[in-house]
């Protein structure tokens, strides 16, 4: 065995050179990896004892891509990815990439320059650069369509999907599957087969058939663009990926590479990719809790109890049933229980119809759900989640029941979105077992969970809740107890300003348009219409004090009755309502305010800057661990566009001094709702970043 570098070594086995890369955690293509690979391939090619070369990786995965931490730093050093690729392609002997785990991005682009690829069945391949606001910048945009064809390449590159090995085999992306757990020997056997059959050394660059088949058919691209337009609205990278594939079709390989290089650089130096790369790391950092050690013992969770089989409880139950955890769903009345279980089944049936799961899987998941009318049936659960309506008295009664019924050491969780969890915990004699698990609606779909740590919550309970959230495919952020926790607390000032803007002369559709154009899936008033204006409103007590009161009194209840802030057509299309406009003007006049024209810029600042300000208050109070956690919450739970990073990232990019100065101006004209948070003032005064101040 010859050590080529810190991260690569070369061994000749049965006349085959096996070049092994070992650079934890994911063998990303850092400078030392690139150089190690280049030197290794060159040495293997020069070694007279070796007739073929196998490239294989140690650890959990094949190369997972370029090293993202190097992006945006001081230019590349050492061998480039292109150098490694050229060494592979131009080797005088067959080069075989042996893939396990994931071959992603630059990793797959390296593998595409091997003459052959083998993989174990559990492996996956993909070009996920689009999710980082990028495109494959090492020839992937030109090589992938040459293997899998234009349509598949379009779909793979704009979704970033990790394609399972069996599908890769069908697509020709992988030449052979080898037995799970026997990649090394399987690859060597394959190499010997290539040699004995005298197979020619294939270079993807020279195979033009599939791209030529799409030449002169621009409609392929137009149709594809139309198909993804809604989903990718606002994002630059999907369109840039498409343009590169167009170049693969219409230009020579060399020119296509040049187009790819130019567009890659544009994306890489742009704001969107900076935000998306930041989000990538933020979503990994969010799991790290400074005072809860990684090896904190966890409570085994085999059965979960959920109280409340409404939309929320049912949705939460599905998350556990999906991953094989048994659930007991408790309701007070049989009718509500039957309805709740029926909704869950209907959701699963819909997934089956769309081909996402099989009918057998529907039954398997349903079989994990047991309905009950008695909280006593939760006695053998390891975790109970209360998911009833927001009423402190009711919640405390349920927690007193949990305390009485549940076995020692089990976790008692509440799904409250705003109430004081310390007070809820006071209904038990075991506050160390009490925690918040705030799911977002629809709970079976939305990725975010705010895990809420109360005063006495134990580290074991926190560690288990975080790990369990991960297991059910969520992204969890640990937050502290305060009104609305982090997400809803930040939503508050935005909503307040949106309402206030109406009283100053903006219309709901003006505010909604500005926030929609910013990248939110919908604005606050369209959102209110969707949720129903009459949630928490009562005809008996309504005094016409707020605009919402007035709208509800006029039976404008939202989408559900075709009239809310907007008028709705039979197809649910919204149009500005002249009646609402008159109501707003009348209501504003009653408050004595003079209406004025409000610019889009003001609408945006009025809505967004107070959110950033609230974020600073949250950080200062220690209710979020770090600024990036707030951003993870807002991108995953509230539709903040990932290409803008999140409110805290956005504030920093806009310039915290700019945000601060504007808040000061607004405070003068609009009062203390805009009073700058002391931490924001401190950060600007000291010229520090979040990280430098420990946030
Ligand atoms: N560069 C640098 N660090 C990376 C990385 C990368 N490409 N991919 C993962 N990491 C780091 C993570 O930050 C994490 O670090 P931490 O432990 O300090 O938090 C660690 O590796 C493990 O990552 P995960 O927690 O995500 O581990 P999983 O096992 O859950 O997932 C994975 C593994 C599927 C490989 C996932 O990490 C992933 O999707 N990585 C990104 C893949 C990607 O986007 N590749 C394309 C890069 S861009 C590119 O290649 C450009 C090229 O075209 C020129």
List the helices and strands and how they pair.
Layout: E1 2-3, E2 8-13, E3 16-21, H1 31-46, E4 52-57, H2 81-89, E5 95-99, E6 102-104, H3 106-111, E7 116-119, E8 124-126, H4 140-148, H5 150-159, E9 163-164, H6 165-171, E10 176-177, H7 183-197, H8 209-212, H9 218-228, H10 237-250, H11 253-268, H12 271-285, E11 303-307, H13 311-322, E12 326-330, H14 334-353, H15 359-367, E13 369-372, E14 383-386, H16 392-405, E15 411-414, H17 421-425, E16 434-439, E17 448-453, H18 459-471, E18 475-480, H19 487-504, H20 508-518, H21 524-531, H22 547-553, E19 566-568, E20 574-576, H23 578-590, H24 600-620, H25 627-637, H26 647-654, H27 656-670, H28 678-686
Parallel strand pairs: 3-4, 4-5, 5-7, 6-8, 7-10, 11-12, 11-14, 12-13, 14-15, 15-16, 17-18
Antiparallel strand pairs: 1-2, 2-3, 8-9, 16-17, 19-20
Helix pairs in contact: 1-2, 4-5, 4-10, 5-10, 10-11, 12-25, 13-14, 14-15, 19-24, 20-24, 24-26, 24-27
3-hydroxybutanoyl-coenzyme A binds at residues 25-26, 28, 61, 64-69, 102, 104-106, 109, 128-129, 132, 134, 136-138, 140, 281, 284.
- The radius of gyration over CA amounts to 28 Å
Can you tell me the CATH topology of the largest domain?
2-enoyl-CoA Hydratase, Chain A, domain 1
What structural category characterises the helix and strand content?
alpha/beta
Shape: globular
- CATH architecture identity of the largest domain: Alpha-Beta Complex
Mean pLDDT: 96
In which range does the helix fraction lie?
Answer: 40-55%
Bound molecules: 3-hydroxybutanoyl-coenzyme A
Runs in which pLDDT lies below 50 for 5 or more consecutive residues are none
Strand coverage percent: 5-15%
The beta-strand count equals 20
In the sheet with the most strands, the strands line up as 13-12-11-14-15-16-17-18
* Tally of individual domains: 4
Corresponding CATH superfamily of the largest domain = 2-enoyl-CoA Hydratase, Chain A, domain 1
Question: Strand count, sense and closure of the main sheet?
Answer: 8 strands, mixed
